[in-house]
């Protein structure tokens, strides 16, 4: 199971989705399951799944680094492959085109968004194939199998891109993936079986064959003109489909704006898109605590700061970049009698920069010196000012 891993489980589920799509399209086109075309599609889809799984990071860097013209060219290539069944007799674009384009989309399924695009293509193809399935149990079994594989792949997207950055591997995520898939698939399968048995023929509208709305094959294709009522109905359906698509796009845009305002993710500054595939998200370590002086050193520094604050209240303060010794020398030059004892500066420098730990006696001596200086400062402040003649 370690060999399979989360990425192997994801691309195995995607391969099962593609294989189930090929079986549905083959059953809808021929009315029976032909093993040889199904085996060919299985080999092609399996090869694309193995390549995408093995070269996931290089392909992700390549696709995210494409410019606008290159992306447009890629979509045009997909569109050309999607329309290719129009040249084959007995094939329909809206039924076979999704299957034809599935291997290319699977090869590009290397990001969560592109994996969801593959699932959307497969779901659309399965829906178009289901419209033409014969009323046989084989069609129901294939639809249930497709739904189970589709749900498995949808859950594997979350586990593959969420568990790897956190180092989760082994049995637990695979067990949770299978358990969640079954918990969703069992009631969905029951609802689908009940709908299969009880849904009225044609539903609320008349039955519409897939060939009436699909592009038929060009060689020897039967052609008939559309009457005026059918033309109006087709135009109405096209307009309503366009309005629904625009409405859904507007809702998605508004939801994205709302989510971004609440704290969306942004690229790191100086980071190009092609480098995001190799990013690793880890919790930042708490900042280191700033270095602090021990009790004796801090006590001596605080006592000297108390004296310096008292001098600042008299309008005599240290200048930026001035050391304690330089400050004391300036006091001796500018304010006679205001300088401190040299021992007080020596104790401060030893406590702040010395390698030898100050003792309790040094702390007590600093306290006595600061008390004397503050007392002398108070007496100097109380001395009468001589009148100027």
Write the layout of secondary structure elements.
Layout: H1 5-30, H2 35-54, H3 56-64, H4 68-83, H5 93-107, H6 112-130, H7 137-163, H8 171-198, H9 228-261, H10 295-313, H11 324-334, H12 342-353, H13 360-382
Helix pairs in contact: 1-2, 1-5, 1-6, 1-7, 2-5, 4-5, 5-6, 6-7, 7-8, 10-12, 10-13, 12-13
Task: Provide structural commentary.
By secondary structure, the protein is an all-alpha fold. It has helices at 5-30, 35-54, 56-64, 68-83, 93-107, 112-130, 137-163, 171-198, 228-261, 295-313, 324-334, 342-353, 360-382. Helix 1 (5-30) runs antiparallel to helix 7, helix 7 (137-163) runs antiparallel to helix 8 (171-198) and helix 10 crosses helix 12. The longest helix is centred in the middle third of the chain and has 34 residues, at 228-261. The chain is elongated and about 115 Å long. It starts with a helix and ends in a 7-residue tail after the last helix.
Count the beta strands. Answer: 0
Structural class: mainly alpha
Task: Give the DSSP E fraction (strand runs of 2 or more residues).
Answer: under 5%
Order of helices and strands: HHHHHHHHHHHHH
Tally of helical runs: 13
Distance between the termini: 103 Å
Helix content: 55-70%
Question: Which residue ranges are poorly predicted, with pLDDT under 50 across at least 5 consecutive positions?
Answer: 202-223, 267-277, 382-389
- The average pLDDT value, as a whole number, equals 77
Characterize the main sheet. Answer: none
Radius of gyration: 40 Å
What does the overall shape look like? Answer: elongated
